[in-house]
Amino acid sequence: MSSYSPSSVLLLLLVIFIFGGSSAEAAEAPLSSAAKEYLQAHNQARAAVGVEPLDWSETLANASSRVVRYQRNKMSCNFANLTNSRYGANQFWAGGGSSTPRMAVDKWVEEKKYYNHGNNTCAPNHTCGVYTQVVWRKSLHLGCAQATCTKDQTTIAICFYDPPEWWGHVVMVGDGAIY
Ligand SMILES: *[C@@H]1O[C@H](CO)[C@@H](O)[C@H](O)[C@H]1NC(C)=O
Ligand SMILES: *[C@@H]1O[C@H](CO)[C@@H](O)[C@H](O)[C@H]1NC(C)=O
Ligand SMILES: *[C@@H]1O[C@H](CO)[C@@H](O)[C@H](O)[C@H]1NC(C)=O
Ligand SMILES: *[C@@H]1O[C@H](CO)[C@@H](O)[C@H](O)[C@H]1NC(C)=O
């Protein structure tokens, strides 16, 4: 799943070739394959409802990386308490082996079926805030990270969004899990 295809390696080499010579620009690190997958999955969900794509933020990626490493090292890969997060946040927990960035985003987008775009409402007894953060029009930047607890074969993934989705005065944080 996460291996490079020959064409993406070629594209990467081409990008390095084109931008490698311009030393005046701060060298922007190429995105990891995981970052590309998070970004692409989000931007496909956004394009499907006519919302502009997000870009990748190293600041947000680093912040999410700090949280998932803490959850891995101290909290057995359980969901993080993101109540006081300054960023919008979605998190994903998976048991039973490997999981990919696309699996996390697909899980969040599952809520789409309960969301009604026409009148901005969610079906009774369901939540839609995880999905609506994925496609939140005012969010511009995305950064995600994941960590695996090898002992239990569990994975925690977190994406941060900036600017966040707001529910009244509260920053949206939500989660989804597959077992
Ligand atoms: C993100 O983390 C990397 C690795 O620790 C570091 O080199 C980089 O400067 C950080 N970037 C930002 C924007 O914090
Ligand atoms: C999460 O953190 C908030 C604020 O620090 C705290 O009030 C709340 O009790 C915590 N929730 C859980 C489930 O630990
Ligand atoms: C929103 O629209 C859906 C589908 O047209 C409808 O079933 C639902 O009752 C509406 N909700 C509100 C609060 O108007
Ligand atoms: C929502 O859940 C409540 C409590 O479980 C239940 O009484 C109600 O019938 C449910 N409503 C719908 C539309 O499913």
Write structural notes for this entry.
With 179 residues, this protein is of the alpha/beta class. It has a single domain (33-174), classed as CAP (Pathogenesis-related Protein p14a). 34% of the residues lie in helices and 23% in strands. It is built from five helices and nine strands. The protein has helices at residues 6-19, 33-47, 58-74, 101-109, 129-134; strands at residues 55-56, 88-94, 115-116, 121-122, 141-149, 154-162, 166-167, 170-171, 173-178. The protein has a five-stranded mixed beta sheet, sandwiched between helices. It has a two-stranded antiparallel ribbon with strand order 3-4. α2 runs parallel beside α4. The two termini are 20 Å apart. Residues 116, 118-119, 121 line the site of one 2-acetamido-2-deoxy-beta-D-glucopyranose. Residues 58-59, 62 line the site of one 2-acetamido-2-deoxy-beta-D-glucopyranose.
Outline the secondary-structure elements:
Blueprint: H1 6-19, H2 33-47, E1 55-56, H3 58-74, E2 88-94, H4 101-109, E3 115-116, E4 121-122, H5 129-134, E5 141-149, E6 154-162, E7 166-167, E8 170-171, E9 173-178
Parallel strand pairs: 1-5, 2-9
Antiparallel strand pairs: 2-6, 3-4, 5-6, 7-8
Helix pairs in contact: 2-4
The structure holds 2-acetamido-2-deoxy-beta-D-glucopyranose (NAG) (4 copies).
